[in-house]
Amino acid sequence: MSYRQVLASPNVPQLLLAASLSRLAEGVLLFVVVLYVIVEFGSASLAGLSAFFLTLPGFLVSPVAGAVLDRLGVVRAVVLDTLSSAVLIATIAVLSWADALRAPILFVLLTLYSLTSPLTSGGIRTLFPRFVPEPAYDKANALDLSTFSVIDVVGPLIAGALFAGIGANPTLLCVAVTYALAAASVALLREPAPETEHPPPRQHLLRAAWDGVVHLVRNPTLRALAVSYSLYQAASGMLIVIVPVAVGRWLGDTDGTERYVGVLWAVAGLAGTVGALVAGRLVGAGRERAYMVGATLVCAAAIFPVSALGSIVALGAGLALVGLSEGAVNVSLLSLRQRRTEPAWLGRVMTVSISVNLMGFPVGTLLGGLVVTHSVTVALAVAAALAVGSAASARLLVPGEA
């Protein structure tokens, strides 16, 4: 199937729209909440706690979220999450306008928001293989990832412009409206019946969640992908810290650092969009592991030595290569995970797998902060070594056949 045929498939345009709207709202929200707390409460520590409550609870309950997806149906679960997110964010804005928002209340509302967030992040990825035929998985994933890359670039820009132009509370209401529009788009979908000859017996929710974790651990492909992609995310997490430090040191101009860093990551994000679309045409059944290994090795070389040559131009070229290779890595990962997961387990496995795969990112940011204080070059070399470890794990641990 061509990209045009995938886009013309029933439900796919609505699903891409819902994915884009929900991710845009999520990206803007994190940025705005941190700025809001710093401005309103005057505390960087409270801003850090706000980001903590906005993200960590969802990670902890992701196995239960996967069981909820299977129990309620993915479409209904995603609608529930996006609508509840709209209500909770609007509540924050209204309480703030009424001068009734205190830090503990904000933390509770952010925690409630976070607890349901895995329903959308896992649900969107679960729906794509249900709406397109198996040979089109790669192109559908590429379209999904390309929108994600674009939103990574424009999300902070939109958040900053809205916050500066209309203020925190109207911006929060814009986020709530975006979530409501995402819910409306998802509600237009018609979820197909699961393709299983013998549907699994109804289980207690916690038991079903635990079974999802056990299934991931026992599945050789999913277990190997968790190891490989966690190492890859650790390298990405290191870059988040290394890039601004490197730019500041090489420029010797702290006032211009943020501007250059923003441009560099925008280049990487746009390159990621191109990489995903190209990978969607190249990756196919049976070729996922090879492309994942090759793209990860390209990423390692882009980090070191290319990005470590000591200039902004070299760093920009390196990050562009990182973005291009990331598109191929992610398309390969998603397609392989979808093809090697039984349809009846897809909801539970997808939410657990997403959370486990991202565990390397905070480890990478911590490691990057520790190493880059001593040497930018050494930090880039360590990040590249993690990427090489990711490629080796994918090559050695991911089975060659389903």
UniProtKB/TrEMBL annotation:
It comes from Micromonospora pallida. GO terms for molecular function: transmembrane transporter activity. It is a multi-pass membrane protein. The chain crosses the membrane at residues 12-38, 44-65, 77-98, 104-124, 145-164, 231-251, 263-283, 290-306, 312-333, 345-372, 378-398. It comes from the Bacteria. It is found in: Cell membrane. Its main location: membrane. Residues 11-402 form the Major facilitator superfamily (MFS) profile domain. PROSITE patterns: MFS. This is Predicted arabinose efflux permease, MFS family. Pfam families: MFS_1 (PF07690). SUPFAM superfamilies: MFS general substrate transporter. GO terms for cellular component: plasma membrane. Keywords: Cell membrane, Membrane, Transmembrane, Transmembrane helix.
